[in-house]
């Protein structure tokens, strides 16, 4: 066993850190998209619009039932062959799209469960004062469901950040892609991948800390 | 005035409401009493379509809603002419005491925030909870929550207030303050349909008491007559048991 090249590792840190904005940017963009799509699908699953319900169920089933990597390849390498307009799609866009669709399927189920977890009496009270279904959902039910779903959704965000590393298979130079290139030049694979692993870990730890703060904040408002 | 005709609700083979006819005059305070499971609460919930009746026509003022062909817009209009007080308060958990009162004033009645806040503050003062305006329901006692529930209903200025066993879920120590508030609302000649097991309270505030059993109105009349000289044996035996 040889000794670790610590100087190389330290030198690599700022290089990889330079790609953190791209990694977080992709995750954030996908999170926003996934949240919006998941909320719509969750509401649909609760209200059950005929025909649309089948489509949403199929969507959720497919994106939960197949590997993310397969989905990314399907979007980036496959779809442009069928739909020529997509031929110019770049790796970053494809990765964001793939992450959005993949995670929206999971998040829709959490949000749906959270909506169904809101006490029936809240619906009744909203209806009784004359609110429409949409008003009841938007002003009374969803805010309460959001509180319940928030910790889980942050978990998905953390998972999403880690999953952005798959974008490197689409030729995107993000944290993982940059590391791969560095390692290929230096042949110090262990050092390089250890550094990137620790950096992902640090990002996740920071988010976990924020998540605990958020959870505390959310439960405080409803407690005595 | 309110006119209810043939209101019927079934759950499978079980008829919970059996063709109820009921007229309520403006300003009239009507109390429904009767054994558990006889459709009292279902009657209230069918009047504003929280439970959809199977058959029956409800008329409030110029609005007529027929269960056979009730459209969502009619049901909404019906609900906007009634206010409901729930047994379990059912305050909006994500809204403060004041916001529980202003919510419908803003979203349903289209009032401005200032106007709604002013109305809510007047009501909070009236019901003795001005100091709890910014508290969330979870931080309020059962009695305080139910007073907010009544305040929320008062703010709607609805033609008919439907009140479903307002003290049944309360610890005994909070029953008094809720009954006191309801007495005050009743004194203002708010049209009310109340389901309650508080017989003394019913006797005090009711213009008319209805005894229900088996999904039907068995007997009705002024409190003195119904409580002191019931005509039907079922009424008599029920009153003997609750006394």
Give an overview of the whole structure.
The complex is a heterodimer of chains A (224) and B (243). Chain A has 224 residues and is mostly helical. Chain A contains 9 helices and no strands. Chain A has a domain at 20-171: MetI-like (MetI-like fold, Orthogonal Bundle), CATH 1.10.3720. Chain B has 243 residues and is α/β, with parallel strands linked by helices. Chain B is 39% helix and 25% strand. Chain B is built from 9 helices and 10 strands. Chain B has a 6-stranded mixed sheet with strand order 6-7-8-3-9-10, sandwiched between helices. In chain B, a hairpin with a 2-residue loop joins β9 and β10 (216-221). Chain B is globular, with a radius of gyration of 18 Å. The mean pLDDT of chain B is 95. The interface between A and B is medium-sized, with 22 and 25 residues.
Helices and strands in order, then pairings?
The complex is a heterodimer of chains A (224) and B (243).
Chain A: H1 6-17, H2 20-47, H3 52-65, H4 68-82, H5 91-117, H6 120-128, H7 133-163, H8 175-186, H9 189-222
Chain B: E1 2-11, E2 14-24, E3 29-33, H1 40-47, E4 55-60, E5 63-66, H2 72-80, E6 82-85, H3 97-107, H4 113-126, H5 142-155, E7 160-164, H6 172-187, E8 192-195, H7 199-205, E9 208-213, E10 216-221, H8 223-228, H9 233-242
Parallel strand pairs in B: 3-8, 3-9, 6-7, 7-8
Antiparallel strand pairs in B: 1-2, 1-4, 4-5, 9-10
């Amino acid at each position: 066993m040889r000794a670790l090249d610590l100087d190389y590792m330290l030198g690599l840190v700022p290089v990889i850190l330079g790609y953190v904005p791209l990694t977080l940017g992709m995750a954030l963009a996908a999170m926003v998209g996934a949240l919006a799509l998941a909320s719509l699908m969750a509401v649909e699953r609760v209200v059950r619009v005929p025909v649309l319900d089948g489509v949403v169920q199929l969507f959720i089933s497919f994106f939960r039932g197949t590997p993310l990597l397969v989905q990314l390849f399907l979007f980036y390498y496959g779809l442009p062959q069928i739909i020529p307009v997509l031929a110019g799609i770049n790796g970053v866009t494809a990765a964001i799209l793939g992450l959005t669709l993949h995670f929206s399927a999971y998040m829709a189920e959490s949000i749906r469960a959270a909506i169904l977890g809101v006490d029936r009496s809240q619906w009744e009270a909203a209806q009784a004062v004359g609110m429409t279904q949409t008003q009841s959902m938007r002003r009374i039910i969803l805010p309460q469901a959001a509180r319940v779903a928030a910790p889980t959704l942050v978990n998905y965000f953390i998972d999403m950040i880690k999953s952005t590393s798959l974008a490197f298979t689409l030729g995107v130079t993000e944290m993982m892609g940059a590391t791969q290139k560095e390692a290929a030049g230096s042949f110090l694979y262990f050092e390089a991948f250890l550094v990137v692993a620790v950096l992902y870990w640090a990002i996740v730890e920071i988010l976990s800390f924020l998540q605990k703060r958020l959870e505390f904040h959310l439960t405080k408002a409803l407690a005595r | 005035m309110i006119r209810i005709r043939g209101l019927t609700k079934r759950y499978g083979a079980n008829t919970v409401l059996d063709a109820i006819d009921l007229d309520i005059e403006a300003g009239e305070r009507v109390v429904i009493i009767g054994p558990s499971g006889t459709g009292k609460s279902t009657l209230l919930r069918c009047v504003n379509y929280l439970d959809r009746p199977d058959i029956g026509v409800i008329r409030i003022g110029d609005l007529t809603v027929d269960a056979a062909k009730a459209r969502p817009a009619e049901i909404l209009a019906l609900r906007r002419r009634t206010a409901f007080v729930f047994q379990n308060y059912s305050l909006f958990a994500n809204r403060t005491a004041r916001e529980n009162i202003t919510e419908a004033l803003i979203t349903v009645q289209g009032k401005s925030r200032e106007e709604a806040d002013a109305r809510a503050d007047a009501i909070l003062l009236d019901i003795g909870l001005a100091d709890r305006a910014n508290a969330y329901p979870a931080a309020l006692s059962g009695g305080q929550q139910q007073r907010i529930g009544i305040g929320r209903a008062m703010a709607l200025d609805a033609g008919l207030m439907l009140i479903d066993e307002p003290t049944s879920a309360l610890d005994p120590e909070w029953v008094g303050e809720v009954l006191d508030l309801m007495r005050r609302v009743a004194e203002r000649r708010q049209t009310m349909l109340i389901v309650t097991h508080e017989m003394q309270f019913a006797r005090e505030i009711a213009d008319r008491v209805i005894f229900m059993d088996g999904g039907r109105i068995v007997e009705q009349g002024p409190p003195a007559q119904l409580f002191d000289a019931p005509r039907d044996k079922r009424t008599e035996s029920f009153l003997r048991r609750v006394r």
